[in-house]
């Protein structure tokens, strides 16, 4: 029979906290913050509720992990920093681009109608006339291919793209699809 020696030489401060080895919340917060950062890189995903749900969950999980002194303190802090930066970026995108995103969604939901209307009248619908404002002309001129104004861009780029996808009107010739 062997002798068992009991001593406290291996005692550490982590043994006082039973939660010290539980890193699940910190890891989850870090993964959610990274997923949210990836969503932010894709502008339209950053303007959806999914991005905000990820960032809120990441912040909550990281804070719980830190407050209850669970393990993974570094991951929890990193998750807070990444989620905070993502939140700032998402708020910026929502403030800056939400009106344009709403118009793109409106067009996408009614693409066939807008393409057919263009084929009949060659006029920009009233709800998109605001982009004919001269303050946007520089944007259309810097687009590839360059266009002089929104009406030209709408017909030559936007409508043509939807026709190539087979939405409304007659599809563009194959030679244009390769260009």
Summarize the structure.
The protein has 179 residues and is mainly α.
Could you characterize what this model shows?
The protein has 179 residues and is mainly alpha-helical. It has 2 domains: 17-97; 110-178, no CATH class. Helices cover 64% and strands 0% of the residues. It has 8 helices and no strands. The chain has helices spanning 24-41, 43-46, 49-67, 73-109, 111-121, 137-142, 150-164, 174-178. Helix 5 (111-121) crosses helix 7. The radius of gyration is 27 Å and the shape is elongated.
What order do the helices and strands come in, and which of them pair?
Elements: H1 24-41, H2 43-46, H3 49-67, H4 73-109, H5 111-121, H6 137-142, H7 150-164, H8 174-178
Helix pairs in contact: 1-3, 1-4, 3-4, 5-7
Based on the model shown, name its key terms.
179 residues; mainly alpha; 2 domains; 8 helices
Strand content: under 5%
Major sheet attributes: none
- Overall pLDDT, averaged? 80
What's the helix count?
A: 8
Order of helices and strands: HHHHHHHH
Quaternary structure classification: single chain
Fraction of residues in helix: 55-70%
